UniProtKB/TrEMBL annotation:
Organism of provenance: Hibiscus trionum (Flower of an hour)
Keyword Amino-acid biosynthesis in annotation: no
Membrane-crossing residue ranges in chain numbering: none
The UniProt record lists the keyword Transcription regulation: yes
Keywords: DNA-binding, Nucleus, Transcription, Transcription regulation
Name assigned to this protein: MBD domain-containing protein
Subcellular location(s) per record: Nucleus
Region (Disordered): 1-24
Length: 122
């Protein structure tokens, strides 16, 4: 039984569904979303009830530091009686590979020479 809600976030719409992405998504972002969707299909049996999943790309102001084609997945996992919970962030490259922190993303960019080598990683 699937209880997971999936949303795509774009500058003009705050609650678009995954099956009908907004017009502003780049082809690179859509390709990454497709790769991520294939990855989640493989681990389909590990879903938690009432989890809300949102995807962001570099058009969203909080993630404007991302390179085109990279996306962020935010998972809100509710806990407790009052609906409080925790938000987990996962970063995906255009091939669908997952990174757990911004630092991991910056390090991957440094290794692949997407970022200047003189920039210090926090």
């Amino acid at each position: 039984m699937k209880h997971e809600k999936v949303e795509l976030i774009s500058p003009e719409s705050s609650s678009s569904k995954l099956k009908a992405p907004p017009q502003k998504w780049s082809p690179a972002t859509l390709a990454t979303l497709k790769a991520v969707k294939e990855r989640t299909r493989k681990r389909d049996n590990k879903r938690t009830p009432n989890v809300v999943v949102k995807y962001y790309d570099n058009t969203y102001t909080s993630y404007d530091w991302l390179v085109s084609g990279w996306i962020v997945e935010e998972r809100f996992v509710p806990t407790g009686r009052k609906g409080t919970g925790r938000t987990y962030k996962y970063y995906y490259d255009p091939t669908g590979r997952m990174y757990y922190t911004k630092r991991d993303v910056l390090f991957a960019w440094k290794i692949s020479k997407l970022m200047k080598s003189k920039v210090k990683i926090p």
